[in-house]
Design brief:
By secondary structure, the chain is mainly α. The protein contains 16 helices and no strands.
Length: 277
């Protein structure tokens, strides 16, 4: 990951480290953690708190009465739902590409949210860690932001191959000496995210290479695929990519199962439209 480290060195000061997310994820995994700990951690960031409350009071959650505090948000929505809001809000800040990159500000965020939603749906049915999967899905393409800062032509350069994820990785490695997945894993490692999450992001195009974290990487891989199939990609809708069989096998799913997740994801995204913009 030497080349990935070099790219991260160049731009890490331009990306706001989402300090609350890894701390909150660690807190949720503690058996003795309570809601007061969660509220206290989130409340240290006034902007984050304001955004959580704004979304908590949106039509999506259909609250009968207004939610006016973090204590109330955690009590009524649940700690896991509030955590996912924190991840999505933090992701919205991280995933905005630089100006003149050839991509709209919402394009990568919409794709990432779709990936996270699809991956979480699969994780829920499989009994896997939904919050961890959602986080990995949302941040899986963070490395593309790094490459966009390094090269102003990044989005234009890869527009023609974006629908073929395998080809995209090959082009990145040839031109950059690394790829967005490896860079994403590198920067998450620096931000002290859990090893299983950084591994899933690093290998989200090659889930079999994630070793002990294959299931998490496979959720992200298939979530990424579903995002494209529901139209949340970069202007292209791909056919099944080359690695789909491996990911499906890891999670014991079929292509018919995947189509069900396409339908479920599409339905959920309609209810979430505009929630994080």
């Amino acid at each position: 990951m030497q080349m990935a480290d070099q790219y991260v060195d160049k731009v890490h000061h331009l990306l706001p480290a989402p300090c609350v997310v890894p701390q909150l994820l660690q807190l949720l995994n503690k058996p003795d953690a309570d809601n007061n700990d969660i509220v206290k951690l989130i409340s240290h960031d006034p902007s984050l708190t304001a955004n959580v409350l704004r979304i908590s009071n949106s039509a999506y959650f259909a609250a009968a009465t207004s939610i006016t505090s973090m204590d109330e948000a955690v009590a009524r929505l649940g700690s896991q739902q509030v955590y996912r809001l924190v991840v999505a809000i933090s992701g919205a800040m991280l995933l905005a590409p630089p100006k003149n990159s050839g991509s709209t500000a919402d394009e990568l965020l919409d794709h990432s949210i779709a990936t996270a939603v699809a991956a979480q749906l699969m994780a829920k049915d499989a009994g896997d860690d939904e919050s961890l999967v959602f986080t990995a899905g949302l941040l899986h393409d963070l490395g593309k932001i790094v490459l966009a800062f390094v090269s102003n032509d990044f989005y234009k350069m890869f527009q023609d191959v974006e629908s073929d994820q395998s080809a995209l990785i090959e082009v990145e490695r040839k031109l950059m000496g690394t790829d967005h997945a490896e860079i994403g894993g590198c920067i998450l490692l620096r931000w002290n995210f859990p090893a299983e999450l950084t591994s899933a992001v690093q290998f989200h195009h090659q889930p079999g290479s994630a070793l002990a974290h294959q299931r998490l990487a496979a959720h992200v891989y298939l979530g990424n695929m579903v995002a494209y199939l529901v139209g949340q990609g970069y202007g292209h809708q791909p056919s099944m990519p080359r690695g789909d069989s491996e990911a499906l096998t890891i999670l014991n799913l079929t292509k018919d199962d995947l189509q069900e997740y396409v339908n479920k994801t599409s339905a959920q995204l309609k209810t979430m439209k505009g929630l994080f913009h």
